[in-house]
Specification:
The protein is an alpha+beta fold and 151 residues long. It has four helices and five strands; from the N terminus they run E-H-H-E-E-E-H-E-H. The chain has helices at residues 11-25, 42-47, 100-114, 129-137, and strands at 2-5, 51-57, 63-73, 82-91, 120-121. Bound molecules: coenzyme A.
Length: 151
C-alpha cells in the first residue's frame, strides 16, 4: 500500500469517500440530513499548509482510504497553543481490519510533529466500535463528551 499526499485531482474520490463516511455514521446520528449531508472543505484542506490529507493507494492504483490532520489553534485554557485535529478517517470495506488506519494516523502524527504539534484530537460517535477500537490501539482515550437534546 502507498500512503501519499492528496492531490486536487483526488477530490472526486474524496467526495465519494466522504459520502461513504456519512452513510457509515448515519446509524449513530438521527440528525444527519437524509440527503446532501457533507462534512469537509476538501479544496481548502488539500491546498492548506496547515493540513495534510493522505490517500491510501493499493498495488493496482485504486484509492482505498483517506484521512487528514489539520493544525488548529487550541482553547486558551489548554497548555498547548496548537493541536492536530484528525478527520475523514475512511478505509474501503474490503481493506478493513488490516491496520491501514493505524499506519495512516502514524504518518499524520509524524507530519504534525515535524510542525511542532504533539497533541491530537478527533470526534467519533459513541457506538462506532470499529473506529473507537482503531483509535484506542493508537493510544487515544475518551475526553470531552458531547451531549444533545432534541425538544
Ligand atoms: C474506522 C475505520 C477507518 C478503521 O480502519 P481500519 O483500517 O479497518 O482499522 P483497523 O484495521 O485498526 O481495525 C479496527 C477495528 O475494526 C474492527 N474490524 C476488523 N475487521 C473489520 C471489518 N472487516 N469491518 C469493520 N470493522 C472491522 C475490529 O474491531 C478492529 O479492531 P482489532 O484490530 O482489535 O480487531 C474503518 O472501519 C472505516 O472506514 N469505517 C467506516 C468509516 C468510519 O466510521 N470512520 C471513522 C469515523 S470517526
Amino acid at each position: 500500500m502507498l500512503f501519499r499526499p492528496a492531490l486536487m485531482s483526488d477530490i472526486p474520490v474524496l467526495l465519494h469517500m466522504e459520502q461513504e463516511l456519512v452513510e457509515a455514521e448515519r446509524p449513530f446520528d438521527a440528525d444527519i440530513r437524509p440527503s446532501g449531508a457533507t462534512y469537509y472543505d476538501f479544496d481548502d484542506l488539500v491546498q492548506s499548509d496547515l493540513a495534510c490529507v493522505l490517500m491510501i493507494e493499493d498495488e493496482s492504483g485504486e484509492l482505498v482510504g483517506t484521512g487528514y490532520v489539520q493544525i488548529r489553534d487550541s482553547k486558551p485554557a489548554h497548555k498547548h497553543d496548537r493541536h492536530g485535529y484528525l478527520g475523514c478517517m475512511y478505509v474501503a470495506p474490503s481493506q478493513r481490519g488490516k491496520g491501514l488506519i493505524t499506519t495512516l494516523i502514524d504518518k499524520l502524527t509524524q507530519w504534525s510533529k515535524a510542525q511542532g504539534v504533539t497533541d491530537f484530537y478527533l470526534d467519533v460517535y459513541d457506538g462506532n466500535n470499529s473506529a473507537i477500537r482503531a483509535y484506542e490501539k493508537l493510544g487515544f482515550k475518551p475526553c470531552l463528551v458531547e451531549m444533545k437534546l432534541n425538544l
